[in-house]
Amino acid sequence: MVRSVPARAFLVLGLAVLAAPSFASQRRGSFFDGDGAAPVSGVGALKAAAALLPTPVSAAVPVPPAAAVRPLKQSGADLYYFSPAQARAAAERFGTERRASASGALDFDSDVPAAIKAQMLKDLAFVKTIQGSGATPLHRRIFGAVDGPTYDAWFRDRVTSVGLNDCGSAKAVACVIPFQDPSKMWLTQNYIKFSHPQIARLMVVFHEARHTETDNGNWPHAYCPDPFLDANGNDMKSIWTGASLAGEPACDTTPFGSYGSSTIMLKNIQKFCTNCTDKVKMDAGLYADDQMGRITGADAKRQMTDDLYK
Predict the structure, then answer these.
(1) What is the distance between the alpha carbons of residues 130 and 190, in angstroms, rounded to a whole number?
(2) What is the pLDDT of residues 154-163, one digit of tens each?
(3) What's the CA gap between 85 and 35, in Å, rounded?
(4) Distance CA 15, CA 8 (A)
(5) Strand 184-187 relative to strand 174-175: parallel, antiparallel, unpaired?
(6) Given phi > 0 = left and psi -120 to 50 = alpha, else beta, which region is 276?
(7) Which one-letter DSSP state was computed for residue 28?
(8) Burial class (CB within 10 angstroms; exposed 0-12, middle 13-18, buried 19+) of 105
(9) Based on the number of CB atoms within 10 Å of its own CB, is 153 exposed (0-12), middle (13-18) or buried (19 or more)?
(10) Where are the domains of the chain?
(11) pTM of the entire predicted model
């Protein structure tokens, strides 16, 4: 027996198809910024439309389409980025429970050059030595104390393996690609080629480690304003590439995202590390102040200013 389906069902499905843009070409403003719910688009639109269909027509929605799990084309202006749809695909595929290594040891792929592996292990060994005399409230909420073993445990609870990848750009340093493996960090040759201080490399890997948190939507970047000017009216530029950040997915509107959390970490090291050299503390402050410029949400900026600069 052929069952008739009301015309309204076809209309709803047709509208859903029209409402679902390509995940590979996300429009500005559609990236989840950590402050609220992700916009209803793509798969969300299909789910919303399916809910309007008359029962018992199936409202099941498939796993996000292939476009949602292909890496976005990277602009090369700053660090690697992915879309909320790709983060949701990671949650569908891997779940939201963290997969920390039982031993805490990092598993390096065989193609990771010895020099890159040695540098990363040296950087992580350094951060494990940090001793602190205090911590700001936001730092305690994200990391705990300013303390080397605390940082080390935080990192290894999130990152279990390291591979070699170009991360979609000749200027990339590192990336986490959640929909491929949310607990794996990829490094590029730039990790040892760029002339940035050790604390800056640590800022990058702790930034990327925040992106492993599938239980928090992997904290995708927010789009920077366009135009995007500093306090002196100059274009905001990437400290890594020198490129303009206007309109780029290279900002946060929450203290708890990847830019926000790494800023908080470095500023606390500057303020509270008791066994760091003056050079390390100066570098930590320099890079923290630069990244603070990426915090574009008014409430987030106020929270972080009160937490770090008063």
Answers:
(1) 25
(2) 999 999 999 9
(3) 16
(4) 11
(5) antiparallel
(6) beta
(7) T
(8) exposed
(9) middle
(10) 7-69, 94-308
(11) 0.76
